[in-house]
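Forwarding the complex inputs:
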Amino acid sequence: MCGIVGLFLKSKELEPQLGSMMLGMLATMCDRGPDSAGFAVYGAGDQGHVKITVRATNPDFDFAELATQISDEICAPVEVAVRDTHAVFTVPAKSERAARDLIEATSDDVKVVGAGKRMEIYKEVGRPDSVGMRFHLEQMAGSHGIAHTRMATESAVTTNGAHPFSTGRDQCLVHNGSLSNHNSLRRELERKGLKFETENDTEVAAGYLTWRISEGDSLGQALEHSLSDLDGFYTFVVGTEDGFGVLRDPIACKPAVMAETDDYVAFGSEYRALAGLPGIENARVWEPTPATVYFWERH
Amino acid sequence: MPTIDLEVTPLRELNEMLHKLSEGSNDTHFRVLNPRGRHAIAAGVDAPVTVEIDGNAGYYCAGMNQQANIVVNGSAGVGLAENMMSGRVHVKGDASASAGATGCGGLIVIDGNASSRCFISARGIDVVVKGSVGHMSAFMAQAGRLVVLGDTGDALGDSIYEARLFVRGEPKSLGADCIEKPVRDEHKCELGKLLEDAGLAGDVDVSEFRRYGSARKLYNFHMDNLEAY
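Prediction (whole assembly, two chains):
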């Protein structure tokens, strides 16, 4: 069992409150996944820069020093914003590869969690509400975000096993369910050159979507293909630069509730996650149809 | 009339209060405020009282109900009135998956839609859904009646036993061993009484419904049916 929440704001006025609204939703889903949590927030960003979210396993890791090293390497200023065990490095888009190579070569303690124009990803082991507060989710602004509370069934309780998993630039995936063909699919994807860090089934689903997209699929097409290639139970929520998408497997054992008002579209594994949202009393509330890809995007 | 605000009173206290009721109790009508999707609201009640829930209920609302009349002024989560024995449950919004699962008796009326697996493994309960129901509804249903005014999802009545299904709209597909059966006068009479109990007397024409039930081909193992098991 796991919990998922997602929030997509139609109203710009609510953007400063995105994080606090998401934290409230995340906290209600602690019962569904008390061992670890993570979230992706889509905040400010510009065309010329990429935000690289980096996680350090050593709590004393010097992110500022790493920023200086990157800046020296790419000959351009690098902004760094540190939040607990994570830091977001903002680098010129053209230097993304060089910056990532340097970060990945720094030490085994340091990992790139995700990258994109607007996406920041944070995840840790611990009770979801405290994980959210550790990173000061309540202070984060943005247009949309997705979050996950994990009750591990397929692999160990580690930060690497926590969701979201990055599936590409500005894209990430959270999952409630369990895949039954992830081992064979992992082997197939490894033969195609993908690398996996955990035994986790969701990492395989994320890798699968990344691979489909690299083959030319849109994210929507990649999700459609997953209906025939992924076996097992899943409710997926994917974050994109402009919004989020939802897909439930055809059997739909894993719950999903949506709510829509003039101001937002919200997703919750249970209605409880939505109960605190403003205007929920008059929202349209419904369950997404199984085996159907949904997207909500800002145009 | 006792009014319980779940933002103030813990849910366990409400349920304990309802469990302690006995026949002849002075309080016969309870109003529950701020359910906010909490689970197991008014589960396990065994007394002839009315419990009115103002808002959306979570999982297992009215589970195992006996005798009570439970009204949800909103929608209900997974497992509404699971294993109900008797009494009546009325949901004014939608119900999530597995509404009325394994129910032995009583009546559930859902004004909106019910999600997948509605009436699954029913054993005598009656469920009337004014909207549509999702896939795998009436799976392995043994006894009782499911009435759907709208359409049904895939695999209606898969592996059904002796439960009776009345659908006014279109089933997307029928499950293994579920077939359409003729609607005779006795069935129209039966359906008419059930619709009357659900408060729909005169609103719906019984002749618009089609009846589905078991072909009774899967009752015993038969080599020719291997693929259907």
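Residues 185-197 of chain B form the longest helix (13 residues).
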